[in-house]
Write a structure and sequence with these properties.
The chain is built from 4 helices and 10 strands, in the order ααββββαβββββαβ. The chain is α+β, with helices and mostly antiparallel strands.
Length: 244
């Protein structure tokens, strides 16, 4: 074999060795292996609701449980009874397809991954004041925040989202003093799944809105009003037996 051919063969072998070695190094990364196993190798389908069994026709026994909560960062409430707020929405559910044995992945118990790669409930504010660009639905669909996925299959997603709600959309807004106690129901639910497919619950059993993260720059913030504000805001999880 000529020196030129030998050099070419050695160069080719060196390249193959380097590619093979890089491939092994990549597969030995526990996070990479885990994500490959959960999504690529298992053929994860993010458009399929993670129900173990099809919906029961008479009850929600097979429905997926979705916890829904909200922390309000800033808020304004005008005389027309329109609530405008910046929020951290809180969603949690279990996706049985995303379970793993942490011992097989060097003890990894959770991963942070773009929520766009996961199945997510199609939540909507039924009594929203506005729709379209910049609205809750618009930002919900494109929220870039990561979700935390635990080895148990539990998913926690806390996206920052704007909110503009018509507090009394089903009746004429009464004329009241702004200093009087007000009430606002925020009606949130799935736009397409009925109660047989998705069972909505309060996040961590929260009965009222969480206001501990509200900024002092919020127009409605004051120490003595925070508890009152918390109790005036009620989130109603809408679960219908048909589409809204």
């Amino acid at each position: 074999m000529g020196s030129g051919k030998m050099a070419a063969a050695m160069k080719s072998g060196f390249i193959l060795f380097m590619v093979f070695g890089f491939s092994l190094a990549k597969n030995n990364n526990a996070f990479t292996r885990l994500i490959d196993d959960l999504f690529d190798d298992a053929g994860y389908e993010k458009d399929a609701i993670p129900m173990l069994k099809p919906a029961d026709k008479t009850s929600n026994v097979n429905a997926i449980n979705v916890g829904v909560g909200m922390s309000i960062i800033s808020m304004d409430y005008d005389p027309a009874e329109v609530l405008t707020a910046n929020t951290w929405m809180k969603f949690t559910w279990t996706d049985y397809r995303l379970k793993w044995d942490a011992n097989q992945y060097e003890g990894i118990s959770n991963i942070k991954i773009p929520a766009s790669r996961l199945w997510r409930p199609d939540m909507s504010v039924y009594n929203a004041y506005d729709f379209g660009s910049g609205s809750f639905e618009d930002q919900f669909a494109v929220a870039p925040t990561n979700a935390i996925v635990y080895s148990s299959g539990k998913v926690l997603w806390i996206p920052p989202l704007p909110l503009k709600v018509n507090c009394h959309h089903d009746k004429v807004a009464p004329s009241t003093n702004q200093n009087d106690p007000q009430e606002c129901n925020i009606k949130i639910g799935s736009w397409t799944y009925d109660g047989f497919h998705m069972n909505l619950t309060a996040y961590d059993g929260e009965e009222y809105m969480e206001l501990s993260d509200m900024t002092k720059n919020s127009p409605t913030w004051s120490p003595h009003r925070r508890e009152m504000l918390s109790r005036m805001l009620t989130m109603i999880a809408v679960q219908s037996l048909t589409c809204p």
